[in-house]
Write a structure and sequence with these properties.
By secondary structure, the protein is of the alpha+beta class. The chain folds into three domains: 62 residues, Structural Genomics Hypothetical 15.5 Kd Protein In mrcA-pckA Intergenic Region, Chain A, CATH 3.10.290; 95 residues, Pseudouridine synthase (2-Layer Sandwich), CATH 3.30.2350.10; 114 residues, 2-Layer Sandwich (Pseudouridine synthase), CATH 3.30.2350.10. Strands 7, 8, 9, 10, 11, 14, 15, 16 and 17 form a nine-stranded mixed β-sheet that branches. Strands 1-6-3-4 form a four-stranded antiparallel β-sheet. It has a two-stranded antiparallel ribbon with strand order 2-5. It is globular. It starts with a strand and ends with a helix. The relative contact order is 0.13.
Amino acid sequence: MEVYEFIADESKRLDALLSDAFDDMSRSYLQKLIEKGQVTINGAICTSKKEKVKIGDNVEIQIPEPENLNVIPENLPIDIVYEDEDLMIINKPVGMVVHPAPGNYTGTLVNALMYHSQKLSSINGVIRPGIVHRIDKDTSGLLMIAKTDFAHQSLAEQLKEHSIKRQYIALVHGRINENSGTVDAPIARNPKDRLKMAVVKGGRKAVTHFTVIERFSQYTYIECELETGRTHQIRVHMQYINHPLLGDPLYGPKSPKIKHEGQLLHAKTIGFIHPRTQEYMEFDSEVPVLFHELLKKIRGVELGG
């Protein structure tokens, strides 16, 4: 049983608040935990999913250990950018969870991969076959999938050595006046809110480089390149320099002028040494339509439209 405790920083319905925090779990599963009395507010058990949580309330949730289960292959559409005998490059859409988690055992990328391929690396077990690294549910873009343990070990080692090229695009709040910059700040679990990551003294080294693509008076369109790969790294680092991602439910402002559900973040480019051929490979993906729509909306707001 894992226990998470945090202080609410916004007023919201309980199930919605938990759904924002645990984006790899289904809201229905979180609602069941509430109904079973596994959530408390200020020490009192709450069994109503509609309970209004107020700013400053202490919320605690108990999450049972994951069940031992067989993940079921599902015929779900996936965008395969590249595939050979050792690996695949997948362009994950917004809203798809990478691998099963409590209450969310179907509809994930892993379910789709198991239907598509009879061969996936076993290093990460039955819940995460083939998964070398992950991106959040509402982050779209390119992922490396290992079909063999040999490929998995090689790609994991490249990640550990920080030699893999990973470039993202993002829309952030505020105008960044510098053309480029680097955030070098350690990241760890937020000691005041166990649901979030934060810049914490003594945390794991984390380095993010950013370059401005286009700037507006209240927003900036940027490219980020990861030197390290910590949980929520870009989201945490951009909040740290007071430019949180537009739509970010965990790290963004509570009353943005432009509202959007889910952080505007896309893993656009990935480059690595192929485990078997030892040749450098690089893949690039199209900017999602969603970004073009939001940029158009921002331009409209800037012009008073």
